[in-house]
Design a protein that fits this description.
alpha+beta, 2 domains, 6-stranded antiparallel β-sheet, two-stranded antiparallel sheet, 13 helices, 10 strands, disordered N terminus
Length: 356
């Protein structure tokens, strides 16, 4: 297969009008990419997975992600050029923690006969993120479910993350700027939860919000010391168990690529989030294992109140995202998301009790 690196699109074919390329419907692209014969390498079967922002096509050994032409509060992918730039950004950022997984960006093109083709010179009609397919049984969430977590490999993943945080510090952040960044994130969770929750859950969310704001405003030095120590990083942005793969040389995939502001964070925030999600999957012992490895390598021993704050914040964020799913008229399993809202509100309340 011919894979183009970010920024190097294949040559356009003058025989395929640009107007037609722009107007190939998403359904036609999805239908084409579902077929095993569409790929320039041997494929036995294709598994197609739809998400809010993308379609992912899994072949025997590869994975291809097609961005949807969507507009939301946080991303605009309506134009082909925006989708190309987003795909290149995804590859660049994810190569930080999974260099061999993210192969590059390939074009979906129109051939001279008007048919679609993958990675062959022609008029681009869209762009695909090309990845190596990872074994599902090695994903941390699946390994937790199956009781097969390899602790040694998880330790290596923690070492990978610790080195990543060490090498991705943000030098120009100020104490005031970081505190404002934290306040805005806390306020966004609160404002949206107030829109989407019913009483008495609004009261519960309001109480955890007051606890978070109270800590930021009442003990600013807690956050200022993180900046002064050079601990603020451009991180992963969405560090969950389903993004950690415990292959022999572990990798972490699927970072939050579309908004740098959401990647500017404290490593303690991301690792607390990972630990919280492991605990939700009934593996509470894994978070401390990862955190202890980070603490040893980074020589970072954050105060317990800071850890509690990040836990409260992340639980509020996850409650907000679960509540957002309930606003989707096409959501199928409402009980799943209703239960998630209640779970995360409870976690936020427990953490808020440690902030006073």
């Amino acid at each position: 297969m011919t894979a183009s690196s970010p920024g190097s699109p294949p040559a356009s074919s003058p025989s395929a009008p640009a107007a037609r390329a722009e107007n190939v419907p998403l359904a036609a692209k999805v239908d084409f990419l579902r077929r095993a014969a569409s790929y320039p390498h041997a494929v036995g079967r294709v598994e197609a997975i739809e998400t809010h922002l993308s379609w992912v096509f899994l072949t025997d050994t590869e994975a291809y992600k097609l961005k949807k032409p969507v507009l939301s509060d946080f991303i605009d992918l309506r134009s082909m050029e925006r989708r190309r730039r987003n795909a290149e950004q995804e590859v660049r950022l994810n190569r930080r923690l999974a260099p061999w997984v993210y192969v590059g960006v390939v074009a979906l093109t129109l051939g001279s006969d008007g048919g679609l083709q993958v990675g062959v010179a022609g008029q681009p009609v869209d762009w695909l993120v090309h990845m190596r397919r990872l074994p599902s049984e090695c994903m941390l969430d699946i390994a937790i479910r199956d009781g097969t977590v390899d602790r040694a490999r998880l330790g290596k993943a923690a070492e990978l993350l610790a080195r990543f945080y060490r090498d991705n510090t943000v030098p120009d952040v100020t104490p005031e700027g970081f505190r404002d960044h934290v306040r805005r994130a806390v306020a966004t969770n609160h404002d949206l939860l107030m829109q989407w929750l019913d009483e008495p859950d609004r009261g519960r969310a309001a109480a955890t919000h007051r606890a978070q704001v109270g800590l930021v405003d009442g003990d600013p030095a807690l956050f200022d010391r993180r900046v002064a120590a050079g601990r603020i990083v451009e991180g992963h942005g969405d560090l969950r168990p389903e993004h950690v793969c415990l292959v022999r040389e572990p990798v972490v995939i699927d970072c939050l690529e579309f908004d740098r502001a959401h990647r500017i964070t404290d490593p303690v925030d991301e690792l607390t989030f990972l630990g919280m999600e492991c605990a939700r999957l009934d593996a509470p012992e894994l978070g401390p294992l990862v955190f202890d490895t980070y603490r040893d390598i980074a020589r970072d021993d954050p105060p317990a109140r800071l850890v509690a704050f990040y836990r409260c914040y992340r639980a509020s964020l996850r409650a907000r995202l679960a509540a957002w799913h309930l606003q989707d008229p096409e959501v199928g399993d409402t009980k799943k998301w209703t239960d998630r809202v209640q779970l995360y509100l409870g976690i936020a309340e427990e953490a808020a009790a440690d902030l006073s």
